[in-house]
User: What shape does this take?
Amino acid sequence: MVAVLVSGTVSAQSIRFPWSGYAHDPQHGTISAVASQPLSRIVWQTTVDLSVPTNNIAELFIHYGSPLITRSNTVIVPVKTGASGGFEIQALAGATGAVNWMQTTDYILPPHNWIPSYSPTLTPKNRLYFAGGGGTVYYCDTPDTTNAAPVIGQVAFYGLTNYLANTNAYLNTVYINTPITADRYGNIFFGFQVTGSNPLNLPSGIARIDFNGTGTWIAASNTVTNATISQVAMNCSPALSNDHLTLYLGVNNGYSGYGYLVALDSRNLQPLASVRLKDVKYSGNDANVDDDGTASPTVGPDGDVYYGVLENPWYSNNDRGWLLHFDRTLTQSKLPGAFGWDDTASIVPAAMVPSYHGTSAYLLMTKYNNYADPGLNGDGVNKIAILDPQNSETDPVSGATVMNEVLTIPGPTPDPNLRNPSHPNAVREWCINSAAIDPFTKSVLANNEDGRLYRWDLASNTLSQTNVLTTGVGEAYTPTVVGINGFVYAINNAILFAIGH
Assistant: This one.
């Protein structure tokens, strides 16, 4: 087991084991447990979407799931196999990319606009869970096997016997619609969406399955005192408090409607608290909890919770949304960030930024675009940013009081589709659903639409290293991951690249 103590304030984060799920850990901090290697060369690569043509296309309207890394350096890769769906799991040797084993699934995508992410998880005991059809989950206790296909088990939160007795009824109505999150005890959590009648009359909701396969669930409508709430937000990976006793996730009243951030008891899914999500500038308006976004809650070392929403009225903040900020009980609204709806914020120990002399023990890293697309008023200077969650400034776009910008850096590549006399400095955007934070090199690793992986050196505030992966592709939202040997993993144009020296 890899162990490292980054700082006293960050030790509560789950950095003791490898990249185990979406955004690294159950708090979604994305802090790497090992130093990343220099971005010198592409060591190996593999396709993660078999439906994408080999020649580059302009745009991919998809959220790609996160690769996982076991303690034995097996890379677990979710692979999309068809144009409208179909997924398999590939287990690859981390050093070479050689295929150790593959497993197809019967997972069916829920109704969607953008293709949602398919994201498995690893428990601390190295059990792999990945979504199946009808709201079921498959598991494998030997993901590091190399000489034979591993034994695969299946569980259902509403009982596998019920599923097997009416398989087609559940396959056509019940869909897992979020990444799967595992806690320190081996229990897993996920959101599920129901679109029609089924033998158990299941509604959309949140599920929990323990290590022995016993499932419990709660309807999304029962997490709040509002009967119009109908589902868990698409792509919203459940987050856990630092003591793993509280589960956080977003719910809404339909596709891209208004919604709440809810807190549930992780032991039994009983509601603890909720907060209706509001626009920052127009505080009387409900914010939009958008199903095309990729925001999931992030839990800070102090227990504060961050969650991205879309502004209302739409475009009033240049389509940037807001990063809402609450205390652990969701009873106190705190300083928001000026961008949020399609990114999951990362935790940055303050010591990683030598130029920072403020009082916050940790900072946040987030995408920070300022869109100049038709109908928007942004300048097209799309950035990533380090923000201070405790200290404020006046946002130049909205005039709202928001988190102070500690550091920002724009994308380096001009955007030919947006550059014109009105937007002379428009650049390609950072299409990420989560970045990787490397405290050892004081850097952020993030993927750009221009087809390059970058290292953002926080000491010099420069893009100190880069590697050209492809000629670039628009829109696809991708994670960045650091393996236990320091390889950096990034997805561009439907290909997963392993980069190192």
In short: Residues 264 and 277 are 17 Å apart (CA to CA). The longest helix spans residues 160-165. The radius of gyration is 21 Å. The longest strand covers residues 383-394.
